[in-house]
């Protein structure tokens, strides 16, 4: 069952909303608690589905998880970690990609781990080859069976290693960190991702007793230690959610103060926002994003790993680009299939064409393959209401923005997907004077 949201568009979003801890950090910090010999406390935790899911997975493994939603404070006690039933892991695993990050900590705690069929957004093949190669490199035995991947650690435990990543993958970097901190000896990871969420995971691990250094050339060095303790930490804010509301302000000609938005993690987004013609004011508590009037400008944009323009910012911004004067080009270099959401935007009147070629200065690894990974957006085109179905998390939020910008009444189904990563999004929409209401559910 999934809910349908009725959206009466054509009204600027105005007001203040609060953004809490990052969806792409909090679940990983929760997994890190498994490595400690004492309880951890995490603050600024949002009430989103991915957090619920990881709480359930941790509980299955004997971790006591308590979450005070209102205060956003979570305590995690890993002192009684136990094996979980595979069928129980399976039942939860399919909704997210986080279960794969349990491997290192569980190998250290129990000498075995199990990866079920993984979920997450359908934005490309999303293989796990880097992860399995990394675990093998630490000495783990990786056995792919029809029911999932079974992993065991050798007698004597995991050994530090040298890893060269073929692409600065966020998940593979996290896999390495969560495994290396308690492996014997030194691990060197070259070609690492250095996203702010990864830096905050390093902060957490350092508080737990890990020894980790990050060089300017994407090399991370980890000295394994025998024991780690619990941590107390406040999660960095969600820069994807903050940017999504920024894009919503632009597309609806609105004015949104995002309390909690943090400038240092959003420099590249803010530069692009300004180039498009959006305005922002930064203070110590957040960022005000607004449409200053006049025409928006077209741009050429490439997504990239940090410190480049995030792939997760691309989808919400594309909606605003449909309202910019002239031809915008967006080259997606992180995921091969992240333009599926543009189909609904075309249905709503946007003029968007997608291409297999690399339409950007940097030829990417998708250029020689059959992937529609570049888009040309010609504007401005008025958007009109439509009945649309949410394809994935960020694409879904983009659909919501498009419906809010479009004249008329849209019906957006599959809306529940958005709750995976956007806390209280319908409450926030109402705080911004959006005219939205749930009108029922359908079986998917
Ligand atoms: N890749 C491989 N093999 C692997 C792992 C990754 O080929 O074993 C490829 C992927 O297919 C992709 C690229 O490497 O083309 C980058 O993937 P990465 O591993 O960096 O992504 P991830 O860790 O699976 C996280 C976020 C994504 C975000 C990306 C990039 C989480 C739970 N997910 O995914 O977030 O887009 O990093 O920043 O942290 C979202 O929030 O909507 C979302 C999809």
Describe this structure as you would to a colleague.
Strands 17, 18, 19, 20 and 21 form a five-stranded mixed β-sheet that branches. Strand 15 (about 280) and strand 16 (about 285-290) form a beta hairpin. Helix 6 (about 170-180) packs parallel to helix 7. The protein is built from 13 helices and 24 strands. It is α/β, with parallel strands linked by helices. The structure holds uridine-diphosphate-2(N-acetylglucosaminyl) butyric acid.
Write the layout of secondary structure elements.
Blueprint: E1 2-9, E2 14-18, H1 26-32, E3 40-43, H2 49-60, E4 64-68, E5 73-77, H3 86-93, H4 103-110, E6 112-115, H5 129-137, E7 141-145, E8 148-152, E9 162-164, H6 170-180, E10 186-190, H7 196-208, E11 211-214, E12 220-223, E13 232-234, H8 239-251, E14 255-259, H9 267-276, E15 279-282, E16 286-290, E17 296-297, E18 300-302, H10 311-321, E19 324-331, H11 342-347, E20 351-355, E21 374-379, E22 387-389, H12 393-405, E23 408-413, H13 425-431, E24 435-442
Parallel strand pairs: 2-14, 3-13, 9-10, 17-19, 18-19, 22-23
Antiparallel strand pairs: 1-23, 1-24, 3-5, 4-5, 6-8, 7-8, 10-12, 11-12, 14-16, 15-16, 19-21, 20-21
Bound molecules: uridine-diphosphate-2(N-acetylglucosaminyl) butyric acid.
Spell out the key features of this protein.
alpha/beta; 5-stranded mixed β-sheet; 4-stranded mixed β-sheet; binds uridine-diphosphate-2(N-acetylglucosaminyl) butyric acid
């Amino acid at each position: 069952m999934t809910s349908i949201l009725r959206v009466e568009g054509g009204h600027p979003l105005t007001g203040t909303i609060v953004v809490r801890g990052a969806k792409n950090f909090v679940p990983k910090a929760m997994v890190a608690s498994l490595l400690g010999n004492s309880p951890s406390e995490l603050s600024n935790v949002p009430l989103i589905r991915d957090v619920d899911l990881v709480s359930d997975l941790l509980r299955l493994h004997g971790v006591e998880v308590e979450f005070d939603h209102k205060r956003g404070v979570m305590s995690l006690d890993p002192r009684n970690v136990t094996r979980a039933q595979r069928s129980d892991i399976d039942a939860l695993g399919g909704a997210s990609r986080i279960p794969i990050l349990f491997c290192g900590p569980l190998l250290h705690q129990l000498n075995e781990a199990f990866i079920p069929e993984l979920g997450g957004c359908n934005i490309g093949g999303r293989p796990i080859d880097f992860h399995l190669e990394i675990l093998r490199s630490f000495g783990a035995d990786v056995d792919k069976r029809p029911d999932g991947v079974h992993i065991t650690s050798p007698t004597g435990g995991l050994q530090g290693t040298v890893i060269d990543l073929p692409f600065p993958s966020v998940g593979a970097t996290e896999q390495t960190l969560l495994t290396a901190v308690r492996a014997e000896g030194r691990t060197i990871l070259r070609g690492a991702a250095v996203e702010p969420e990864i830096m905050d995971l390093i902060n957490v691990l350092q508080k737990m007793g890990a020894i980790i250094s990050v060089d300017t050339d994407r090399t991370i060095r980890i000295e394994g230690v025998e024991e780690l303790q619990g941590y107390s930490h406040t999660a960095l804010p969600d820069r994807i959610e903050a940017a999504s509301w920024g894009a919503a302000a632009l597309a609806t000609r609105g004015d949104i103060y995002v309390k909690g938005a943090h400038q240092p993690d959003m420099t590249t987004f803010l530069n692009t926002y300004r180039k498009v013609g959006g305005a922002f004011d930064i203070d110590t508590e957040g960022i005000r994003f607004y449409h200053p009037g006049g025409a928006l400008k077209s741009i050429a944009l490439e997504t990239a790993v940090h410190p480049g323009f995030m792939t997760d910012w691309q989808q919400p911004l594309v909606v605003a680009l449909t309202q910019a004067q002239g031809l915008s080009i967006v080259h997606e270099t992180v995921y091969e299939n992240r333009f599926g959401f543009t189909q609904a935007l075309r249905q709503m009147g946007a003029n968007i064409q997608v291409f297999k070629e690399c339409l950007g200065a940097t030829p990417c690894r998708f250029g020689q393959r059959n992937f529609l990974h570049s888009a040309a957006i010609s504007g401005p085109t008025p958007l009109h209401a439509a009945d649309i179905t949410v394809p994935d998390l960020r694409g879904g939020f983009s659909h919501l923005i498009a419906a809010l910008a479009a004249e008329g009444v849209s019906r957006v189904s599959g809306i529940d997907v958005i709750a995976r990563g956007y806390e209280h999004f319908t409450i926030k929409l109402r705080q911004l004077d959006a005219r939205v209401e749930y009108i029922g559910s359908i079986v998917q």
